[in-house]
Design brief:
The protein has a domain at 50-171. The chain has eight helices and no strands. It has helices at 13-37, 56-66, 76-92, 96-110, 112-119, 130-141, 146-164, 167-173. Helix 2 (56-66) crosses helix 3 (76-92) and helix 3 (76-92) crosses helix 7 (146-164). The protein is globular and about 55 Å long.
Length: 181
């Protein structure tokens, strides 16, 4: 349960600066560690413009869970592939700074040293059950740490925008498509 704004003490400017500095240092350390260890190449996967090979197992595991209820069960594999293509296209059009931040989020979620403690998924994403992924998403959504809540929000927005930008997603939500001119 999240406390209401009136129940939590106001965050001072000094506290915000300390938190921001700590979060930045953490993300920079993870990003640097991933780059130096070769775990996080900046080269896109074969046939993709922005997504890397290291990002794909995580996204292929998380997207079906996030699309649960929005896509018929039999169409999940095709919807996952379509969402990945849309997501890749969207990421390819981001500014370099935003792409770097998104890759840092994916690095935190895919590196074993950070994945387990931060997500509760200790093994490879491909072995995570749908319930494990739902628990991770719920944990981040309701976290007392603002950085995790922001990570959840970013991930949710990226995936949902990628899926609902596709014409095959429109019928489910009653959108007839853009007007014909």
């Amino acid at each position: 349960m999240n406390p209401s704004l009136t129940d939590t003490p106001a965050l001072s400017r000094r506290g915000l600066l300390k938190f921001s500095l700590g979060a930045s240092a953490f993300l920079a350390t993870v990003g640097l560690g991933a780059s130096l260890s070769g775990c996080s190449p900046s080269q896109p996967a074969n046939g993709l413009a922005a997504l890397r090979d290291s990002d794909l197992p995580f996204l292929r595991s998380v997207i079906p869970v996030m699309l649960d209820g929005a896509v018929a069960v039999g169409q999940i594999p095709a919807a996952t592939d379509a969402t990945l293509r849309s997501l890749d296209s969207s990421l390819a059009h981001l500014s370099p700074a935003m792409l770097k931040l998104t890759r840092q989020l994916f690095d935190v979620l895919t590196l074993g040293i950070t994945r387990g403690p931060l997500t509760g998924v200790w093994g490879p994403w491909e072995n995570a059950s749908a319930d494990d992924i739902r628990l991770f998403l719920g944990r981040w959504e309701n976290s007392s740490l603002d950085l995790l809540r922001q990570g959840h929000c970013s991930l949710l927005q990226l995936v949902m925008m990628a899926w609902y930008s596709r014409p095959e997603a429109w019928a489910h939500c009653g959108y007839p498509g853009p007007p014909k001119i």
